[in-house]
C-alpha cells in the first residue's frame, strides 16, 4: 500500500496545530470522592526508588489493571499480554474494572499491597490512578501504562499515536467524499485516546468547510456496539433519504461495528464508514459484501500488549527503557483486502506496511 504524496501537503501544518491544541485540551472529567480515595498525601511527594534489577523468573509476579476488557479489540490486546507473559514464564494477574473507576483504583492498591514485581495499566483516568501509581513507584514497583496520560516520574507510557490514527482515517474519508457532504460523528469524551482523536477531528472539520456534522452520539457501556447501533438507527430514521448522509466517522471500532450494522439493516449502503482500531471481527465486517466500512487506521492490539509486557520485564530486570513508546499506525482500506476472509495474523500479506510494524 503506497502513501500518496498528494495527501502529505497539510501534514506539517496539522502536526504543528496538533501540539498547540493538545497543550490546551481540557482535562478528563472529574470523578466522585470515592474514586479519588487513594492515599494522595503520601503519593504527592513520591519519587522513583532506584533499585538494582531483579532476575526475571517463574516467581516474578506482574499485574494488569484494565479499565475494561469488553470488545474484540480489547480481547486481542489481553491475548497479547497473556501470550507474552506465558512466553517469559512469569505469573500474570488480570483485573477487569468494567468501566468502574473506583474499582480500578482499588485493584491498583491491591496489586501494590501484594508487592507484585511490576504493574501494567490499560486505559483509565489520570486523576483516579496517579495517587496509586505514585505509591507504586515509591515502593520500587515499576509501572507501564497504555492509553492513559500519567504525569508521574518513572512511568513509561505506551500509545498508538492517536493523532496519526485520526489523521489517517479522516484524510481518507475527506478524500472519498470529495470534501463535502453531511457526516455523523460517534464520540465519547473522558478517555485520553478519544480526546486526542477529537482534537484532529476539529482541525479537519475546519480544513473542510463543506463537510457538515449533522449528528453526534456515543457512550462507553457494557455493550457499546449495540448501543451505538440503536443510536445510529435513530439517526437514519431522522435522515431517511439517500444522499442525506455521506459518511460516518467512528474513531473506536466498537462504534464502527455499531454504525455499520445499523446502516446494513437499513439498506443504506451508500453511507461510508471510517474508523480507528482493528480486530479479527472488524476485518470480517469490512470484507462482507457491500460493507459500508471502507477503512480503519490501526495498530495491532496484540502487539501493544506484548510490548507492554516486554518493557515491564526489562524495567524489572534493571534495564533502561524509554519514557514514551509510540507505535506507528497503518491505514487499512477495504480495497486492500482479498475476497476470502482473513484475520489479523494474515493482514501483512495484503497490507505491506502492517508487516513492518511491531
TrEMBL record:
Keyword ATP-binding included in the entry's annotation: no
InterPro entries: Bact_Solute-Bind_Prot2, Peripla_BP_I, SBP_2_dom
GO MF terms, alphabetically ordered: carbohydrate binding
Pfam families in alphabetical order: Peripla_BP_4 (PF13407)
Location within or outside the cell: Cell envelope
Domain of life where this protein originates: Bacteria
Limits of the Periplasmic binding protein domain: 62-319
Keywords: Signal, Sugar transport, Transport
Major subcellular location class: other
GO cellular component terms listed in the entry, alphabetical order: outer membrane-bounded periplasmic space
Segment forming the signal sequence: 1-22
Family: Belongs to the bacterial solute-binding protein 2 family.
Protein name: Simple sugar transport system substrate-binding protein
Organism in which the protein naturally occurs: Priestia aryabhattai
Amino acid at each position: 500500500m503506497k502513501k500518496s504524496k498528494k495527501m502529505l501537503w497539510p501534514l506539517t501544518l496539522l502536526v504543528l496545530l496538533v501540539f498547540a491544541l493538545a497543550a490546551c485540551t481540557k482535562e478528563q472529567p472529574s470523578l466522585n470522592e470515592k474514586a479519588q480515595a487513594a492515599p494522595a498525601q503520601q503519593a504527592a511527594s513520591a519519587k522513583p526508588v532506584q533499585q538494582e534489577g531483579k532476575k526475571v523468573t517463574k516467581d516474578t509476579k506482574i499485574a494488569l489493571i484494565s479499565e475494561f476488557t469488553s470488545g474484540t479489540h480489547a480481547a486481542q490486546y489481553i491475548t497479547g499480554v497473556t501470550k507474552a507473559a506465558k512466553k517469559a514464564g512469569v505469573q500474570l494477574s488480570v483485573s477487569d474494572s468494567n468501566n468502574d473507576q473506583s474499582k480500578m483504583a482499588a485493584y491498583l492498591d491491591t496489586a501494590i499491597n501484594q508487592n507484585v514485581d511490576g504493574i501494567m495499566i490499560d486505559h483509565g483516568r489520570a486523576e483516579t490512578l496517579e495517587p496509586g501509581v505514585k505509591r507504586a513507584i515509591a515502593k520500587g514497583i515499576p509501572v507501564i501504562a497504555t492509553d492513559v496520560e500519567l504525569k508521574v516520574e518513572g512511568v513509561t507510557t505506551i500509545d498508538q499515536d492517536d493523532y496519526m490514527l485520526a489523521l489517517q482515517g479522516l484524510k481518507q474519508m475527506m478524500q472519498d467524499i470529495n470534501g463535502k457532504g453531511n457526516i455523523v460523528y460517534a464520540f465519547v469524551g473522558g478517555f485520553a485516546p478519544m480526546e486526542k482523536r477529537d482534537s484532529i477531528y476539529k482541525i479537519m472539520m475546519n480544513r473542510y468547510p463543506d463537510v457538515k456534522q449533522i449528528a453526534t452520539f456515543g457512550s462507553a457501556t457494557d455493550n457499546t456496539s449495540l448501543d451505538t447501533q440503536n443510536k445510529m438507527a435513530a439517526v437514519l430514521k431522522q435522515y431517511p433519504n439517500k444522499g442525506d448522509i455521506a459518511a460516518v466517522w467512528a474513531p473506536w471500532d466498537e462504534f464502527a461495528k455499531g454504525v455499520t450494522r445499523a446502516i446494513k439493516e437499513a439498506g443504506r449502503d451508500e453511507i461510508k464508514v471510517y474508523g480507528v482500531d482493528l480486530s479479527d471481527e472488524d476485518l470480517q465486517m469490512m470484507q462482507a459484501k457491500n460493507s459500508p466500512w471502507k477503512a480503519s487506521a490501526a495498530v495491532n492490539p496484540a502487539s501493544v500488549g506484548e510490548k507492554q509486557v516486554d518493557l515491564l520485564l526489562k524495567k524489572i530486570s534493571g534495564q533502561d527503557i524509554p519514557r514514551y513508546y509510540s507505535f506507528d499506525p497503518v491505514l487499512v482500506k477495504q480495497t486492500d483486502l482479498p475476497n476470502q476472509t482473513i484475520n489479523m495474523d494474515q493482514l501483512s500479506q495484503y497490507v505491506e506496511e502492517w508487516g513492518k510494524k511491531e
